[in-house]
Amino acid sequence: MSELRVRPVTDADLPAIRDIYNHYVRTSTVTFDEVESTLDDWAGKVTRIAEAGIPFLVAETQSGELLGYALGVPWSAKSAYRFTIENSIYLAPSAAGRGVGWALLAVFVDRCRDAGLRQVIAVIADHGADASIALHRKAGFVDAGRLTEVGEKFGRILGVHFLQKAL
Length: 167
Prior knowledge:
The chain is α+β, with helices and mostly antiparallel strands and 167 residues long. It has one domain: 3-Layer(aba) Sandwich (Aminopeptidase). It starts with a strand and ends with a strand. It has helices at residues 14-27, 39-51, 100-114, 130-138, and strands spanning 4-8, 56-61, 66-74, 84-91, 119-125, 142-153, 156-166. It contains four helices and seven strands. The mean pLDDT is 96. 31% of the residues lie in helices and 35% in strands. It has a seven-stranded mixed sheet with strand order 1-2-3-4-5-7-6, sandwiched between helices.
């Protein structure tokens, strides 16, 4: 997608990020969150991620339409895990199938490597997230396990797949 630009997040991106994420909270099981997030939630997340030295990127069109985002959070608060993160990537529904996820994840992985991180773990729902699993596998993530029946949303019992990428 030649008109796509991937760049670090700014505070001006937060309303669009909130709206993208809340769409999935309301309509799907790809996130186990059941309560919509606020701008304050996202502002705090941006601060915590920046303080941890972890990338938080957005993808936008040349005209400035935000199409998606990718971020990482510490895998664990235990210090021995300091070089391992969990990633999340979400796209605006209109961006699906247009190569945005691939472009965003590729830059995100490069920025994680540049930041000195060593492992990226994707925790992906076992229902409704086949495109995310395929995207991560295409980017070199390998299957690292599965947990069954660990969540419930919309009356469905759900599990998660773990995929991992060594940097």
